[in-house]
């Protein structure tokens, strides 16, 4: 049977059928997998928050190693003592606060609504950690992360992640050698919430100077690095009023 | 009967050297420049393209007699995009860690001109088995160059391979760095890939004079 594939009517029918078939397959796949994917994303958020406060399985100088997914829920409720939502002057407790979508909150803030700011208070070996979620822009797409502070506003740990930074360059913000440098840096410069700059040429590749508000940049990833700097300073400034109330002066 | 006839074998072997998609046809250059700063990313990309091109070529080949020629490019694009999205979604559900590593490659695979090039040049005119071999061959040819470039860029640019330090520690000056050796930061940025690919092309053409075009 020969089909005349040159006819316009055939082309239209073929295109329509193709779109219907492909659309159905993808829609079916997306809806049947979405619960599983959402669950994975939820566990990942818990892993990230715990990672920032130092609850992880890192060994030596190797790779990032999270708490395994089957244990993370238990560890999360063990170490994260309180989850707060800061909405203007109003502070409420909500143990689902970690599920707040920062992107939606940023859009809401643009439309004149008050932004809901989630904040997590962790406790490990008697010391308090104030963990702030962050979201910003890299070179290609979004970057996000968590920064854990103590009550003197000194960074105890960070976690960064990205949607589509260049592998080998900007994508290295989620490598240990970059993230580990932030620990011990203060986000304060005097009394100003300066954040931490990802600086080129700060003559401190070993990152021994901890009071300069700077960490050593990644070669070849200037824009991603600047994005990280901007993300940290913007995020901590949104929490400034709250942080001032808990800061030990 | 041999599994592969001589002609079938040449479908796989030719793209590895004398008809290499990157060094001879100069296709897929953008991904070769973008992701070869480290060896791991090169290997992941090579495997992803192997998978997508192998299956995509078979799908297009099976559909070759019913695809209207007027809209064939868009049909090809839909096939490759669908395959990539299916893989991405399934990995997100069942191998979340892996999918995080791969997600940046998804966009690069869809726009990789080798894939569209093989659909258009081979799969539309040949049977599924031949198309499959052609897809595997070209993906391997592409992958080999990616891995060679990634090897040199990571070694010379960062002093590591697959993230493991092989030349010593550049900060505490051990290993080769004790002698005053420094990493070449230039190797990390994309133009360095162009130079490495250029050197590969140069070596290949000086070995095989038949590849040199007459002017």
Molecular structure report:
The complex is a heterodimer of chains A (249) and B (215). Chain A is an alpha+beta fold. Chain A contains 6 helices and 10 strands; from the N terminus they run ααββαββββαββββαα. Chain A has a domain at 81-246. Helices cover 37% and strands 23% of the residues of chain A. In chain A, the strands form 3 sheets. In chain A, strands 2-1-3-4-5-6 form a 6-stranded antiparallel β-sheet. Chain A has a two-stranded antiparallel sheet with strand order 7-8. A two-stranded parallel sheet of chain A has the order 9-10. In chain A, strand 3 (117-124) and strand 4 (127-137) form a beta hairpin. In chain A, helix 1 (8-52) crosses helix 2 (69-79). The radius of gyration of chain A is 22 Å and the shape is globular. The termini of chain A are far apart. The mean pLDDT of chain A is 88. Chain B has one domain (36-206). In chain B, strand 1 and strand 2 (164-165) form a beta hairpin. In chain B, helix 1 runs parallel beside helix 7 (128-158) and helix 3 packs across helix 4 (72-94). The longest helix of chain B is centred in the middle third of the chain and has 31 residues, at 128-158. Chain B is globular. The relative contact order of chain B is 0.18. The mean pLDDT of chain B is 85.
Report low-confidence residues of chain B grouped into runs of 5 or more: none
Helices and strands of chain A, in order, run as HHEEHEEEEHEEEEHH
Query: Roughly how many Å is the radius of gyration of chain A?
Result: 22 Å
Structural class of chain A: alpha+beta
Biggest beta sheet attributes of chain A: 6 strands, antiparallel
